Amino acid sequence: MEPTVIIDAIIFGNLLVLLAVGLTLTYITLRIPSFAHGDLATIGAYVAYFMYVGLKLSPYLSVPIAFLISGSVALLSYLIIFKPLSSRGTSIVGLMIASIALDVVLRSVLHIYADILSETYKVISRGFIFRDSTIAIGVFDIPCLFVISTVLSICLIISFYMLLTKTKFGIAMRAAIENPSLAETLGVDVNKVYAISWFLAGGLAGIAGVFLPFRMTAGPEIGWFMLLRTFASSILGGFTSIYGAMLGGYIVGFAEVIGMYFLAKPPFNVPTAFRPALSFIILIVTLLLIPEGLASKIRLRKIAMFSKIPVGEVKDDSRNS
Predict the structure, then answer these.
(1) How far apart are CA 182 and CA 121, in angstroms?
(2) What is the pLDDT of residues 57-93, one digit of tens each?
(3) CA angle, corner 20, sides to 227 and 168, nearest 5?
(4) Are 270 and 263 in contact (CB under 8 A)?
(5) Is the distance from CB of 185 to CB of 41 less than 8 angstroms?
(6) How many domains, in total, are found in the chain?
(7) 3-state helix/strand/coil string of 129-189
(8) Distance between CA atoms of 214 and 210, rounded to whole angstroms?
């Protein structure tokens, strides 16, 4: 297997980690599997594209701006749409429908924005792709995206661990997610915790969106195109576990890239157009065999090991890890 395949798998895994952690953050707060999450990544992609064609700057410089803009859109969607609906007791189905409606609105706005870019700068605003530079390490030319996305992913993992375990906000966040009513009684501002969580979720999706055009042609639908893979990563890791989402992102990323590498070769000769189907297969298998996700499975085994209780008799009541 060529080293480039491993590099591509790591890069794709890094992107899915950013997307899956964001999706999980929105789910563990209001229990909403948001179908508009992919559009936040698309916003990040178009922020980077504007920086590239409008300001003639490297797309990598747009990372903090994309984080702020996508995070702000996610925060506004929480404050204007999902928080009021949730406070009125809207069912999960109703909240899902609201997220689908938001997805339609955001994609329509992105299509309009693509037309504006095309008319203003006379550029191709659909189907664009970024050309990446490389860093020479020995005999290998390493893509800058590999270095930057890997460093960001490592920093993300460390930051979330420190945030959730070493800070007052992290403790408040875990308490608000585990038992909102009790957390409010103890003085935790649950709405503030949820709002910050949604902002972080949108920001992470925006960063992933900046990187996506380096790996595939981008347009107003690129976020929707990545949504199935994001759901597969989150569900595989355990939809209520941030660390599980990280694990699921790398598993799905490696499975899709390396799996397609072998399937495209004889005797299979599977067209690369079927690559997204691998994520769908992972999603279906997960729902059939381990619907609680890998994180919950691992947690149950640890409980059983220390308590000497058979795994099948241990119940998992936790909502977050």
Answers:
(1) 54
(2) 999 999 999 999 999 999 999 999 999 999 998 899 9
(3) 145
(4) yes
(5) no
(6) 1
(7) CCCCCEEEECCEEEEHHHHHHHHHHHHHHHHHHHHHHHCHHHHHHHHHHHCHHHHHHCCCC
(8) 8
For the chain, first and last CA: distance in Å?
Answer: 35
The residues pairing with 135 across neighbouring beta strands, listed in sequence order, are 142
> Is 205 within the bounds of a domain?
yes
| CA distance linking residue 265 with residue 224, whole number of Å | 28
In a domain, 287, yes or no: no
pLDDT of residue 301: 60
Coil, helix or strand at residue 128? strand
| CA 153 to chain centroid | 12
Give 281-293 pLDDT, tens digit per residue.
999 999 998 888 8
Contacts of 155 (CB under 8 A, 6+ apart): none
Task: Flag whether 284 is in a domain.
Answer: no
Could you list the residue range(s) of the whole structural domain that residue 196 is in? 3-132+140-251
Q: Give the pTM.
A: 0.90
**Res 210 pLDDT > 90:** yes
Res. 194: pLDDT tops 50: yes
Residue 321 per-residue DSSP state: -
Residue 57 lies in a domain: yes
